[in-house]
């Protein structure tokens, strides 16, 4: 982790010019910056209110959490580049943190474009988010990121999973950000480690688990609940809380429809959903969301199970491919085997992983494809042609 000097960040952001402002929240403002070597960065600076209170805890906590995660970093967690520091330890007295710059902004801005200023890039962003597969991939990527946090040692609970804290890079890969409220657990139950400054449950209205009312009820299932709300957002295109709608809560609106099997009434009308999706996989996806939003924490599935279900929904077109597509696939696979050719992609990918799609061994008689969690396969891509 690099310790940045304040003057470096001032130079990178034109002294935190309003023209560089790309995000603002209760804990701080985020600016786009460019370092001397041309690297684009995002700089989160402490809010004026917290500066006046001399309260550095949110930024210090975010720096501490991000710097403690696996050094390999996870492709679905925003890359932490460093921070300013005024104390003996790099994460003490932090006034700004630096992460990678995500050019496509937040998921909230893209799903709800009325919150965006006029931008020449907006039409393209709209078109991309009108693809059902893009939204399903984002759902898997976010689930992978949350699973990584929950499986870390010690376990990390984000506590503020929401569309505004999900960033999108130039390839539409989603990454979790904003760890100001995150905390660690000794284990996956309710034994709290470093929450001395977090005695009051925190989160965002519309996403926060209603059963999380005391510190003793903090667990990974708090994030699962919030993830369920994000899943409903992705499917419906509706805000978590929309005072222009009745009911205002996306949960109160969607759950009764799910119970009555009315998936078509929930799906975002701006998307041309393939017919076979609404009657099958979308209903299964909505059932996952409903389980995440269960009143009883114990009834909510762990993130590992959620990732498995969602990945299964993405690769399902393989079994639905017509014979002609299977024939084309077998031809490609055969050519790849003879030439020992490995196919990598720079386009769509899940959780940042594109892996080889055929074995190298010429003697291998197994026609199966090496499948890695989060990978898109040649056969799936071909099958997808039949769904559009």
TrEMBL record:
It holds the Pfam family Pkinase. Keywords: ATP-binding, Kinase, Nucleotide-binding, Serine/threonine-protein kinase, Transferase. Residues 16-319 form the Protein kinase domain. SUPFAM superfamilies: Protein kinase-like (PK-like). GO terms for biological process: signal transduction. ATP binds at residue 45. GO terms for cellular component: plasma membrane. One of its GO terms (molecular function) is ATP binding. It comes from the Eukaryota. PROSITE patterns: PROTEIN_KINASE_ATP, PROTEIN_KINASE_DOM, PROTEIN_KINASE_ST. Belongs to the protein kinase superfamily. This is Protein kinase domain-containing protein. It comes from Erythranthe guttata (Yellow monkey flower).
